[in-house]
Amino acid sequence: MKTIHAEAARVPFARQIESVVMSTDLLDIHTHLYPPSFSELLLWGVDELLVYHYLVAEVFRYLDMPYEEFWALAKTEQADLIWKELFMKHSPVSEACRGVLATLHAFGLDVKKRDLPTVRSWFASQDADQHITRCMELAGVKRIYMTNSPFDDLERPVWEKGYRRDERFQACLRIDPLFLWWPEAGPKLARWGYQVEGGPSSKKFFGEIRRFLADWSKKMNAAYVMASLPPDYAFPAKSASARILEQAILPHCREHGMPLALMPGVVRQVNPQLRLAGDGVGLTNLLTLQNLCANFPDNKFLTTVLARENQHELCVLARKFRNLHIFGCWWFTNIPYLIDEMTRMRVELLGLSFTPQHSDARVLEQIIYKWQHSRRVIAQVLVDKYTALAQIGWQVTPAEVERDVKDLFGGNFQRFCGTQDGSSS
Ligand code: FIX
Ligand code: ZN
């Protein structure tokens, strides 16, 4: 009898929640997208969608051609091959394949025709700038957070020339080389005029790295500093990298009130022949993050971890440290099956005090499918949780649902960062 009553209450209630989750505008707090002023760094269109590194990894499950032969093909030829193998010769059921079709479908393109040339010409007729706005509208994205690396030789000149801000985009300072590849980053900093030649034992060293971080944070007006880390990254440690973190990066973040986004768990280039598609995943030792949160309570850590097996421990850490904000279902975990599992686990352990998703889009139009798919899963989790409350007599009001969803879709993140409008200014 009770179950029937709960089910009856569920239907209109569920629709209302779903519609709030599907339509609330959000902040996409980590992507690899750029405004048009970064010219070729902004990737968009069906060929880019098809040669996305997620699909490159998948197509090699079927291809037996040598890797080099694939890389020697022109982009359209690679896209043709991926289309043929992953969409025509097999049904496109993987999340990345389904994502391409969901995106085309959202533009009103008729995917059942399986007509790649027509799709190509439709994209060719789009104006990049207007297309960005349209994609953001379709995805319900208010602002796109970029990944901006001064170490990237294509990107750095754009900043140095003077980038005219595009309100749709927010910069974030990416500094992986400082963490991991000091032998590579050091000579570069020296070349750019920072006096780091003496190494960690010289008096100026850490101050000069801080000067580098301050210069670039300012130039970019960056919302946060970020880096991905290998699973075994250790802190505290005697390594140069751990000392740079303690004596330059963390003080910089404290001084400027910037969170440090740490993304551990990636094992770079487990198969270098796959190039960008060749990175893997490993189980992270989260003691490093625990040490950081415990020893630096005045620093704020934004974290997403790559391995599924780390997700529970990460939630428990977030229960212990309020200077830790969990975000997103990153990369290999950005599949509905795991988004569902992770979001339920997070809600059950943390309530609503996290940011459930980011898109990590590398190709503009991906924001459409990544958000559409994630929103559906998040909606279902919320429906279940609010229904469970209704069954014990607690009815959330429509205004409360809207409040909760806004928090999940950017409000929590902004509060954690200490910004009201999602920018660092
Ligand atoms: O390190 C990162 O920010 C990763 O998200 C990317 O490098 C990765 O290649 C990716 O696109 C994952 O979605
Ligand atoms: Zn990323």
Number of strands: 10
What structural class do the secondary elements suggest?
alpha/beta
Radius of gyration: 22 Å
Mean pLDDT figure: 96
Could you describe the 3D structure shown?
- The protein is of the alpha/beta class and 425 residues long.
- It has helices spanning 2-23, 46-50, 53-59, 67-72, 75-88, 95-106, 116-124, 128-139, 156-161, 176-180, 182-191, 205-220, 240-256, 287-295, 311-320, 336-350, 366-391, 398-417; strands at 26-28, 141-145, 169-170, 173-174, 225-229, 260-264, 266-267, 280-281, 301-303, 324-326.
- Helix 13 (240-256) links the parallel strand 5 (225-229) and strand 6.
- The mean pLDDT is 96.
- The structure holds D-fructuronic acid and zinc ion.
Task: Summarize the structure in short.
The protein has helices at 2-23, 46-50, 53-59, 67-72, 75-88, 95-106, 116-124, 128-139, 156-161, 176-180, 182-191, 205-220, 240-256, 287-295, 311-320, 336-350, 366-391, 398-417; strands at 26-28, 141-145, 169-170, 173-174, 225-229, 260-264, 266-267, 280-281, 301-303, 324-326. The strands form 3 sheets. It has a 5-stranded parallel beta sheet with strand order 4-5-6-9-10.
